[in-house]
From TrEMBL:
Pfam families named among the record's database cross-references: NUDIX
Protein name, as recorded: NUDIX hydrolase
Signal peptide coordinates: none
UniProt cross-references to Gene3D superfamilies, sorted A to Z: Nucleoside Triphosphate Pyrophosphohydrolase
Amino acid sequence: MTTGETATPLPTLADDLLTEGVPEAEFNPGIASRLPAKNVAGAALFRNERGEILLVEPIYKPTWIMPGGAVEENEDPRLGCRRELAEELGLDLEPGRLLVVDWVPRHGVWRDQLQFVFDCGVLDAGQVAALTLQESELRAAHFVAPADLARTPLTPSLARRLGQALTALERGTTEYTTYGRLGR
């Protein structure tokens, strides 16, 4: 683009849905309702200026997690991650590059899901000081050095997913994993 030119705005989701045409009708009534529903979540990989990773301590489970959360129905995972960061931490930041898509199988009360992990960059000291935890969901926020992650209360699958995200960040790649592991 040269000086003086303006970028053409991207079509909205509503525009794209209109160009798809009339919503498809079922030829076999009930088939769509029999398909499984899958949960989706968007997580943020934040670091501080010392390279430590931001993890949060939820009130609803015994282990720590990455900031972010469940994506609402018909919500883009990146936008869902952004919404969750605003709600849970008081951060209004656009998630960056996709680092990992991880399939997590059903386990206990949690249905299977796709976890999208986005690079959300480095928080400066002012941003860290301004973090505002949503008390109805989070007990605390912690910055953990990568070398200390093994001694942090994480599920094994999240530890693997986080490791894959750090590797993808370093290599400039995006990885697809199964329960935090490559090549399954």
